[in-house]
UniProtKB/TrEMBL annotation:
Residues 29-149 form the Alkyl hydroperoxide reductase subunit C/ Thiol specific antioxidant domain. One of its GO terms (molecular function) is oxidoreductase activity. It comes from the Bacteria. It comes from Persephonella marina (strain DSM 14350 / EX-H1). Pfam families: AhpC-TSA (PF00578). This is Redoxin superfamily protein. SUPFAM superfamilies: Thioredoxin-like.
Length: 195
């Protein structure tokens, strides 16, 4: 039993140790967004700069396949915001996986997800200090290419946001209520960056 407790403690320590720190998040705010390469839905390698047009705000949503609430419960709710603001704001969903474009097509149907997906991995993870415990990881970029806001885990009681916002009320909400609240908050931030 002692070994089981030790192993559980070690796993909890490891899972939280590799999450992004508050300082790392704070260091991104107000700076130019970090570029990275990925594979678009046609299988072509592209730079995120080719997707985010100068003078147009953007929302980048980093996600992972193994994250059920964030990917399968939260991400499809972003479709409504994409439908509403996609003409004025660039949306990109970045899958942090070694999946193929064919797997992306299947995933988009299954979720369903309208937002264009870009496959990315090591370079992206390093540039944004992303760990599995941080996704969905949403970056709001203004029309000047500056990061204005970041939200991690919007469906979770462990939501983290920079600039810092108190989400202690999430403790008393169901997952569906947290997702609904987060979508409302995200819509406000999209309007703030020029949606």
């Amino acid at each position: 039993m002692r070994y089981v407790n030790l192993i559980i403690s070690f796993m909890i320590f490891i899972s939280f140790s590799f999450g992004i720190t508050d300082k790392q998040l704070d260091d991104l705010i107000g700076k130019d967004y970090k570029t990275f390469r990925g594979i678009d839905e046609t299988g072509k390698v592209v730079n995120i700069k080719s997707l985010i047009k100068e003078g147009k705000p953007a929302v980048i949503i980093f996600f992972a396949l193994g994250d059920k609430p964030g990917t399968f419960d939260f991400l499809p709710k972003m479709n409504a915001l994409y439908d509403r603001y996609g003409r004025n704001v660039t949306f990109v969903a970045v899958l942090l996986s070694r999946s193929s474009p064919e797997e992306v097509k299947q995933l988009k149907k299954m979720l369903p997800l309208k937002i264009p997906v870009l496959l990315a991995y090591n370079e992206t993870i390093k540039r944004y200090s992303i760990s599995k415990v941080d996704v969905p990881y949403i970056v709001f970029i203004d029309k000047n290419g500056k990061i204005k806001r970041i939200i991690l885990r919007p469906e979770s009681t462990m939501i983290k946001e920079r600039p810092d916002v108190d989400h202690s009320d999430y403790e008393n909400k169901t997952q569906n209520e947290r997702i609904k609240s987060s979508i409302q908050i995200i819509e406000k931030y999209i309007k703030d960056i020029g949606g």
